[in-house]
C-alpha cells in the first residue's frame, strides 16, 4: 500500500512539473522580463490576476478530465461530434510551431554555456529529448527529468533575484494597488502559463498513469493548483530579479531581455546561469509540448495509440529539423500565438458543458462556484483572445 501511495505521489508531482515546465519556456522568460520593464512594480498585479485565472481554468479542466476518465479531445467529441478533431488540430499546430521556438531556446542555452553554434546545440538538445521517449519507462523518466530541471530553474532564479536586490516592498504594494494596468499583458501572461496545450499537459499525464475517477478528485484538485503554483513561483522570482535590475535605470537588451537581467544582476556568472535556465526551460517545454500535443491525437486510431511514442519522437525531430534548416518561423509563431489565445476559452467552455452531461461524467456534480468562475474566465478570455487575434494577424503583413 505504501509503495502504491509513493508511486501515485511520484505521478502527481510528475504531472505538476510537466505542466509547470511546459509553461516555463523561452517565451515565458522573455514575456516576464519585457512586461516588468514596461510596467515596473505594477507587473505584480498582472501576475496576481493571471494566477487567479490560471487556477480557475486548471481546476475545472483537470477535474473534468479525471472524472470523465477521458482526454480533452474525446470529451469535446462527446459534447459535439467533430469538435474534438478541431481542438486537436489547434493544439497540435500550436504545439509544433512553439516547439520550434523551444528548440531555438535550447540552442541559445548551449551557445551561452559552451560557445557552440545555436543550431548545433539545438540539434543535440533535440536528440536528448528524443532519447527520453525511446526508453522503456519513458513516462517515469519524463517525470523525473521535468522535476529535476524545474527545481534547478527555480533555484538559480532565486539566486539571481537576491543578487538583483529588488524593491520588494514597492512590488508588494503595487501588486494590490497598481499604478497602471495593462490588459494585453494579462492576456499574454495567462496564455503563456496555460495557453494552448499547456493546461492539458498534467491532466493527460494523470489519465495516462491511471489516476482518474471521482475517488481521485481531491488529489487531482491539489495537483492542479500546485502546478499553477510552481509556474507562478518561477514567474514571481523572475519578475523580482528583473525589477531589481530595471529599477536602477538599466535598459534591457531588446534582443534578449532575460539574458541582460541575469548578466546585469550577477555578471558573467549570471550570464552562464541564464544559459542553464533557458536551456532547462526550453528542453522541458520541448518534452511537454511533444507529449501533450501527441496525446491529443493518439485516441483517434488504434494505430496512433500503438505507435504514439514514435509519433512523439517524430514531432520533436520535425521541430528540430525545421529550426536547423529554416530557422524560427516568426510569422507562423505570431499567427499561432493569436489562435492560441482562443484555445483556452474554447477548451474550458467545452469542459464546462461536459460537466453537466451525465453520459460523460456520470453522477458527478460539478461545484457551482467552479462553473460560475469558469464561465467568467471563458467570456473574459474569449473577448481578450479575439482582441489578440485581430491585432496579431495584421502584423503578418506589415
UniProtKB/TrEMBL annotation:
Regions annotated as coiled coil: none
What are the transmembrane regions?
9-29, 41-66, 78-100, 112-135, 147-164, 184-203, 224-251, 271-297, 309-326, 332-357, 369-390
The entry's cellular-component GO terms read: plasma membrane
Pfam families per UniProt: Nramp
In its keyword annotation, does this UniProt entry include Metal-binding?
A: no
Q: Where in the cell is it found?
A: Membrane
Q: Which organism is it from?
A: Virgibacillus phasianinus
Record key words, sorted? Membrane, Transmembrane, Transmembrane helix
Q: What protein is this chain from?
A: Divalent metal cation transporter
- What GO molecular-function term can you cite, just one? manganese ion transmembrane transporter activity
The membrane-topology field of this record reads: Multi-pass membrane protein
* A biological process term (GO) from this entry: iron ion transmembrane transport
Amino acid at each position: 500500500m505504501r509503495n502504491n501511495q509513493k508511486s501515485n505521489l511520484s505521478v502527481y508531482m510528475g504531472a505538476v512539473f510537466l505542466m509547470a515546465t511546459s509553461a516555463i519556456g523561452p517565451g515565458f522568460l522573455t514575456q516576464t522580463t519585457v512586461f516588468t520593464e514596461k510596467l515596473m512594480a505594477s507587473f505584480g498585479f498582472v501576475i496576481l490576476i493571471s494566477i487567479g485565472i490560471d487556477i480557475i481554468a486548471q481546476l475545472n479542466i483537470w477535474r473534468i478530465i479525471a472524472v470523465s476518465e477521458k482526454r480533452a479531445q474525446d470529451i469535446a467529441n462527446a459534447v459535439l461530434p467533430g469538435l474534438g478533431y478541431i481542438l486537436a488540430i489547434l493544439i497540435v499546430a500550436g504545439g509544433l510551431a512553439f516547439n520550434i521556438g523551444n528548440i531555438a531556446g535550447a540552442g541559445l542555452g548551449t551557445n551561452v554555456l559552451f560557445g557552440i553554434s545555436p543550431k548545433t546545440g539545438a540539434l543535440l538538445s533535440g536528440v536528448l529529448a528524443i532519447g527520453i521517449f525511446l526508453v522503456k519507462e519513458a513516462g517515469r523518466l519524463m517525470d523525473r527529468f521535468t522535476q529535476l530541471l524545474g527545481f534547478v530553474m527555480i533555484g538559480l532564479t532565486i539566486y539571481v533575484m537576491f543578487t538583483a536586490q529588488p524593491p520588494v516592498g514597492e512590488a508588494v504594494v503595487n501588486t494590490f494597488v497598481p499604478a497602471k494596468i495593462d490588459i494585453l499583458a494579462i492576456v499574454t501572461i495567462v496564455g503563456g502559463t496555460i495557453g494552448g496545450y499547456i493546461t492539458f499537459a498534467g491532466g493527460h499525464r494523470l489519465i495516462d498513469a491511471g489516476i482518474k475517477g471521482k475517488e481521485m478528485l481531491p488529489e487531482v484538485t491539489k495537483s492542479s493548483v500546485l502546478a499553477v503554483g510552481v509556474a507562478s513561483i518561477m514567474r514571481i522570482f523572475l519578475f523580482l530579479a528583473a525589477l531589481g535590475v530595471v529599477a536602477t535605470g538599466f535598459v534591457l537588451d531588446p534582443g534578449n531581455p532575460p539574458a541582460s537581467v541575469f548578466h546585469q544582476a550577477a555578471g558573467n556568472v549570471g550570464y552562464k546561469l541564464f544559459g542553464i535556465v533557458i536551456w532547462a526551460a526550453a528542453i522541458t517545454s520541448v518534452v511537454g509540448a511533444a507529449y501533450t500535443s501527441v496525446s491529443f491525437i493518439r485516441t483517434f486510431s488504434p494505430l496512433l495509440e500503438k505507435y504514439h511514442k514514435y509519433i512523439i519522437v517524430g514531432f520533436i525531430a520535425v521541430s528540430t529539423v525545421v529550426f536547423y534548416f529554416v530557422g524560427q518561423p516568426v510569422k507562423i509563431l505570431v499567427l499561432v500565438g493569436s489562435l492560441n489565445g482562443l484555445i483556452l476559452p474554447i477548451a474550458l467552455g467545452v469542459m464546462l458543458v461536459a460537466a453537466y452531461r451525465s453520459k460523460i461524467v456520470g453522477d458527478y456534480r460539478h461545484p457551482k462556484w467552479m462553473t460560475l468562475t469558469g464561465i467568467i474566465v471563458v467570456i473574459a478570455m474569449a473577448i481578450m483572445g479575439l482582441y489578440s487575434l485581430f491585432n496579431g494577424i495584421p502584423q503578418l503583413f506589415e
